Amino acid sequence: MTDYSSNRIYDCLITKDEEGSIEQFAERMKNDWNKRAERNPIFYIIGYDAEEDWLRHSGKLDFNRHFLPRFEQFYPNADAVLTILEIGAGIGRMTEYIASKCVRVIAADISPEFLREAEKRLNALDIHNVFYKELNGYSLEGIEDSTVDLAFEYIVFQHIGSFDIIASYLRDIKRVLKSGGYFLMHALANDAHGENTTNLGNTFHGCNVTYQLMQDTIDEIKGLEIIEQQITNNDYWGIIRKK
Questions:
Q1: Residue 185: which H helix or E strand, with range?
Q2: Under DSSP, is residue 179 helix (H, G, I), strand (E, B) or coil?
Q3: Which residue, 8, 60, 85, 141, is most buried by CB atoms nearer than 10 A?
Q4: What is the pTM of this model?
């Protein structure tokens, strides 16, 4: 039986059934992230223990740094943005600020425990234009076709140890985006110019993403195009548009 008394004990736990289906791997991710959420949700969102005020402050910093500049670039008329999908919303750290920029946010996460905490927090902040959606860990099942203006994830795909799951998400992002909609993506790129490495069996430290791997995947999906991609400090950043 695993001892969860230490926050970090569950970060690097490796399972042995790496050859299972993406559905099986996604189920392991869901179980593991629920355990993390039950153990210490703030710790597993920002990487250290913090009070609510600092959690909100960190969310605003990342919103201003990683979301707002691109949002204002692509949507200078904010009134035109009806729906934003946040993949991996966690406990609503950035959702609070994203909600001010659209009619509704779909806060999606693999962990129902995180979503319950997000709803509790955001209700207390009198934020009521957020809709909460539990994901299966490999798709956006349950979100209607062509209903999302902008999709966004930050420090979420970096935890996915199977690029097949990232590719599965990309296929479904194409489905839910409106024509001309954008997806702002972040992932790991520790070996950016070499072969992609996987981290199958690990549900905390994800696989690497390369320029070529992303381009090949987008070419295979069809209907999406990469507007921009860059790698800085072992982070992959991509802007993807639905044609």
A1: strand 177-188
A2: strand
A3: 85
A4: 0.90
